[in-house]
Amino acid sequence: MPERNLLVLRHAKAEAKTGLQSDKERVLSDYGHQQAERIGQYLAEHKTSVDVILCSASVRTRQTLDGLIDAYPALATVQTHFLPELYLASEEVLSGALSAVSDLYQNVLVIGHNPDLHSWVLSMAQREACPDKLVSDYPTSALTHLQWHAPAWYPLPRYQANVLAFVTGKMLLADML
Questions:
Q1: What is the mean pLDDT of residues 21-48?
Q2: What distance in Å separates the CA atoms of residue 99 and residue 154, rounded to the nearest whole number?
Q3: Would you give the distance in Å from CA 161 to the centre of its chain?
Q4: What is the distance between the alpha carbons of residues 172 and 39, in angstroms, rounded to a whole number?
Q5: Closest to 117 (Cα-Cα) out of 83, 86, 156
Q6: SS (H, E, C) the chain
Q7: If I label 112, which of 22, 45, 83, 121 is the partner at 20 to 30 A Cα–Cα?
């Protein structure tokens, strides 16, 4: 049975909503740009393989992806789908987007939003394998690497994925000091 690797990333820190700007149009803060680049460096340092990227079409998720690519240029050649339905998507919508990925691909990166991104990760991860920080919160630029053996991307078995990593841009930036 093939090994499936799912990387789930919440967008980096965004500026507060201003004036008539819609929530979808919010941009990353300076700190958010730093977080995104540091997550990209982390992926590059770990030589993380990504076959397909599913990204919300919001401005802040696109900018998060841009930061990843700045730090890990190999991601620029990865097939990327900007999906409006991933904006504040429910677990069902997130799973549905993943079900559209060809089973030939083994490594998928999803970039989206809370609150359901967090609950989606928890619904797939083995409870005993979840670090306390992952269970309690899913802050901006949180990245979880889930892995399991499954014949297809859908349906994925619940509560069976190994948690190979859980990091945040804040944690990684603090390590640099």
A1: 96
A2: 5
A3: 15
A4: 7
A5: 86
A6: CCEEEEEEEECCCECCCCCCCCHHHCCECHHHHHHHHHHHHHHHHCCCCCCEEEEECCHHHHHHHHHHHHHCHHHHHCEEEEEHHHCCCCHHHHHHHHHCCCCCCCEEEEEECCCHHHHHHHHHECHHHCCHHHHHCCCCCCEEEEEEECCCCCCCCCCCEEEEEEECHHHHHHHHC
A7: 45
- Roughly how many angstroms between the first and final C-alpha of the chain, as a whole number? 42
Per-residue confidence (pLDDT) for residue 71, from 0 to 100: 98
Separation CA 139–CA 9 (nearest Å): 10
**What does pTM read for this prediction?**
0.96
Helix 91-99, helix 116-124: angle, nearest 10: 60
In this prediction, residue 61 carries a pLDDT of 98
Structure-token match 């730093």, residue found: 34
Closest CA to 10 of 49, 50, 68, 51: 68
Model confidence over 58-99: pLDDT tens digits? 999 999 999 999 999 999 999 999 999 999 999 999 999 999
Distance (Å, rounded) from C-alpha 146 to C-alpha 37?
21
